[in-house]
Structure formats: C-alpha cells, structure tokens
Amino acid sequence: MRGLIGKKVGMTQIFSETGKAIPVTIIEAGPCVVTQVKSEAVDGYKSVQVGFLDRKEKHLTRPLKGHFSKAGVAPKKVLAEFQTISGFEYKPGQEFTVKLFKPGDRVKVTGVSKGRGFAGVIKRHNFHRQPETHGQSEYLRHPGSIGQASYPSRVFKGIRMSGHYGNKKITVRNLQVVKVDVEKNQLFLKGAVPGANNGIITITK
Q1: Prediction pTM value
Q2: Ramachandran bin of 75, using left for φ above 0, alpha for ψ from -120 to 50, beta for the remaining angles
Q3: Average pLDDT value for residue range 120-125
Q4: CA separation for the pair 26, 7 (Å, rounded)
C-alpha cells in the first residue's frame, strides 16, 4: 500500500535524543479498509480504493449502500484511491494501519488549506502598505495601479488583486516521519501540513 487517509489532530513538539526540540504535526492515520480494487479490464486503470472513519448507514445513498455491501465492509465517511504495488494482491476488506510507515520515511501530504474568505492584497499576496505621508489618507492598504491608460485599455489577466484566499487543495512534499504510534494509529510528521485541525488529509509514500 502506498498511502493512507488520515485526520489532522494538531501540532506539538517532541525532543530528540540530543535534546533538540522538533516541531511535529500529529496525524491520526487509518485504519483504512479496502473497499474496491480497480483493474484495467473493468475500470481502464489500476488502483485500490480505501475507506476511512465509520459512517451511519442511514446517511448513505442507495448506490453507496450497494458499494459497501458488495465489498463486505462497514460504511465509511471518506474514500480515496492509491496506486497499487505490483506483485501485491489486494482484496476487499483488507485493513492497513500506520505500520506502513517507519521513522525516517519521507512522505507527501495532501489536504485542503484553511479558508480565509475575501482577503486584501496585503494578506493574500504579501503586498507592502503605501506611504503614510505626503497627504496619504485612505489608501494605505490599497493595491495601487493595476494597468495602463489608453493602451491597451484593459487589465491583463493574472494581475494580483483582492479575492478568495485559501480553501484550496495543497500538497506538501518530502515531510519526514519522526515517530509512529501503532497503538493510537498516529503519525508524527516534522513540520506543518495543510488544513485545520480535524481536517481530512492523505499521506503517500
């Protein structure tokens, strides 16, 4: 298995053997259950679909009820697909845990960043404020000029302006696994991962 679905718990710090403080993000990773094995003959490509977190059956649609009953697994809240490993046989109902990872592994983490609503150019694009002197009164945090005058008489695409900030799919690569807690199904990754606490993320080797 190449990865797991997880939930961000929060950030803390742990100390190395030399006494150095390491900032870590705690992730509740798995257990994930195989809900479908896709093949080139049936689906046109190879992958394995896994589910994470139990869900009440009354909240399912009929197609999803049939999907989980066919696999013979309990309903799950979150589904995700991962690439298969050649030579390994996947079967519906198989369970994967944090034992997939070990300290020192490098992983990539994908999640949805915190949504910050409508933000100005200073917060969104790290613009500087305008001068506070020489008669300046009410345009301190404004973006300034956004284009030309008579030619080309329009604003070019891609000009950095105010707008929706955050709430996007973000991938952080090359994070190091510092510690694995098998009993609590927790991964300790060095550094920060995208999203708020309790947000759903995927961890891939």
Answers
A1: 0.85
A2: beta
A3: 96
A4: 9
Sign of the four-CA dihedral 91, 92, 93, 95: positive
List the one residue out of 96, 108, 95 whose CA is nearest residue 189.
108
Residue 151 in this model has a pLDDT that exceeds 90: no
Return d(Cα 195, Cα 6) in angstroms, integer.
12
Q: What is the pLDDT, as a whole number, of residue 86?
A: 87
Torsion, Cα of 81, 187, 93, 79 (10° steps)? -30
Q: Where are the domains of the chain?
A: 3-117+166-204, 118-145+159-165
**3-117+166-204 CATH, one of 3.40.830.10, 3.40.50.1970, 3.30.420.40, 2.40.30.10:** 2.40.30.10
- 148, HSE (Cβ side, Cα atoms, 13 Å): 7
pLDDT, average across residues 38-50: 93
* CA–CA separation, 202 and 82 (whole Å): 10
CB of 193 closer than 8 Å to CB of 8:
yes
